[in-house]
Amino acid sequence: MTQKDITFVADFLTEHFNEAPELYNRKGKYFNVERVGQYLKDEDDDLVSPPNTEGNQWFNFLKNSTHLKESPLLFPYYPEKSLHFVKRQMEGIIDQCLQKPADVIGRSVHQAVCLPLYKISQSEDSTPQLFKLPFLWNDKTSNIHYVLFTILENSISKIHILRRHTDTSRSVSNGVLAVEFGNILNNSINESSDSRCYSCLDAHFYDDETITVVLKENVEQEGKERVLAQLPLS
């Protein structure tokens, strides 16, 4: 170490770890801790070296504002406490705010219908993910709620469309249907039926009447063809 390094460390110790007789009656060591570290201690005790807020523009602004001084919208400030203490206080208030909506929403939700989509073996250790690409769309004009999804394994060339009326007491025709792409994109009738099959990489609603899909050609070779297609719901 150079003499400059030693001087720097000595100055640091002199400034932050000098004896503080006014703290002798408190638990623990009788030294001023490093001023950043004190904010990170997970303790409820007051800070050993609280910040000096004199001249702080924000505090002066609040002090001189009759409307903001007692506003319940402002989170209270604890200049004597660490960040861990403030974090716990904020989490408690947020949990309290969210509890009532959670109770109300929870009581209002109920199952409208149950539609088995596939079956899996109960003996398997881990349940495979067969449900993919769920995308939700709400048609406010006709009050119909749609879900687009694909099911892996034997139906990778199909995209499924589930639709339900937003009024659970009403039903819609063709509640669930599947669109199979297969080889519908072949350029000519001369191509083999198995030569160009497509599976769905992604699907979203473009608007209330149109679905946009990204298709991938199912061939094991470089440069697999990708197709962006728009399908009318009709």
UniProtKB/TrEMBL annotation:
It comes from Tachuris rubrigastra. This is APC4 protein. GO terms for cellular component: anaphase-promoting complex; nuclear periphery. Keywords: Cell cycle, Cell division, Mitosis, Ubl conjugation pathway. GO terms for biological process: anaphase-promoting complex-dependent catabolic process; cell division; protein K11-linked ubiquitination. Residues 136-234 form the Anaphase-promoting complex subunit 4 C-terminal half WD40 domain. InterPro entries: APC4 (IPR024789), APC4_C (IPR056358).
